Here is the input.
Amino acid sequence: QVQLVESGGGSVQAGGSLRLSCVASRYTYSNLCMGWFRQAPGKEREGVATLFTFDNSTEHADSVKGRFTISQDNAKNTVYLQMNNLKPDDTAMYYCAATYGRCPDMVVLGFGYWGQGTQVTVSS
Here is the structure.
């Protein structure tokens, strides 16, 4: 069982930055694929970025490449999503997700554990 707790959402103006955090259960952190997903009202949940905790390998969705960065702090069992140059289209509920082993394709069905979500709102 993996428990995930997100924090760091909020409201910013376009061009601003936010950093989301996701703390994973202490004894299950190693050998996890950690992911960030988002879901805007009326839209399907989509993958944003993934990170394999064992070797720090990452993937980012094309829509956020160059603006968002996923990273981790092993000592804190925490994964971050640094979001820069935010746009109104980035407005969504952001979810942390996890699955054991190497990262699968960045799709919802590939992840079995989910946090409660944190809201990000970007105004123009």
User: Anything to note?
Assistant: The chain is about 0% helix and 50% strand. The chain has a mean pLDDT of 94. The radius of gyration is 13 Å.
